Amino acid sequence: MLLRRPEGFPFGYTALTEISGLHADMGMDFGILRLRPGERRRSPAGLERAYLLLNGEAELKWPGGRNAAARRSLFDERPWCLHLNAGAEAEVGAGAGGAELAFLAAVNPASFEPRLHRPQDCREEERGKGTMRETSTRLVRTIFDEANAPNSNLVLGEVINFPGKWSSYPPHHHPQPEIYHYRFLPAGGFGLAVIGERAYVVRHGDTALIHEGEVHPQTAAPGYAMYYLWAIRHLEGRRYTVPAFAAEHRWVAEPQAEIWP
Question: Do the Cβ atoms of 104 and 53 come closer than 8 Å?
């Protein structure tokens, strides 16, 4: 399923999925928060939450810490992300340039310390390099997962899809629900998302909802860089670690794969 936002996101919070409302089967709150310069929002306790800075200047305050963060480019800069347990209250504000953040939340009674993930903390990998004639080389940034947030019910990261190339490839799937949220450079660009047996044209501000077992390879149109935030919710007894690749397409990632011409 694809959620389109051709009109963009207004100031305030725009909910795209809700645990007990819109697209409840995803099991996550997900939306975009836009703050005017100097505006502040309280983040009450109750759910595990993550605030990922997309652009602008943010002022973040949580139990035991406060920090200013700035981000000018999704494509050239690694992310800032405040990750909160269900019991922690916080405050999110905007600096002089305003701020846009992605918000993510899930039910999680487990305890862990709130943490500000800084750009230098983010793992960035150049996946696909040296295979498939570089047609699926991309940057994958993992903000938090099972390795550094074992008590979280979420996994969060970003992909930078180079123009004309593929990502989430070879096609893979997993039982846990996942959200992709897209941005393009230039913003008028487009890409293609394959979800299961359906293909969607994706544009700036779109959001894809990926359900259990659906393969979800992606590609960006030539000339346009594609960014997408990816968020996965762990399932009880089935925590996400690594995806399963579609058996019929695994061969393409072998270093010596014979690919025409």
Answer: no
**What one-character DSSP code corresponds to residue 235?**
B
Max Cα distance, the chain (Å): 58
State the Cα–Cα distance between residues 45 and 57, nearest whole angstrom: 24
Q: Distance (Å, rounded) from C-alpha 170 to C-alpha 218?
A: 10
* Cα–Cα distance list, 232 to 72, 105, 120, 167 (Å): 25, 11, 22, 17
**CATH of 7-235 given 3.40.50.720, 3.40.190.10, 2.60.120.10, 1.10.443.10:** 2.60.120.10
Report d(CA 145, CA 159) in Å as an integer: 15
pLDDT tens track for 218-244: 999 999 999 999 999 999 999 999 999
Cα 244 to chain center, whole Å? 19
Q: Are strands 172-173 and 244-245 parallel, antiparallel or unpaired?
A: antiparallel
Give pTM, 2 decimals: 0.97
Using alpha carbons only, how large is the chain's radius of gyration in Å? 18
% residues pLDDT > 70 (the chain): 100
Quote the CA–CA distance of 246 and 253 in Å, as a whole number: 12
Phi, psi dihedrals of residue 252, rounded to the nearest 5°: -65, -20
Angle at 231 between CA 70 and CA 181, to 5 degrees: 70
Distance from C-alpha of 113 to C-alpha of 101, rounded to nearest angstrom: 21
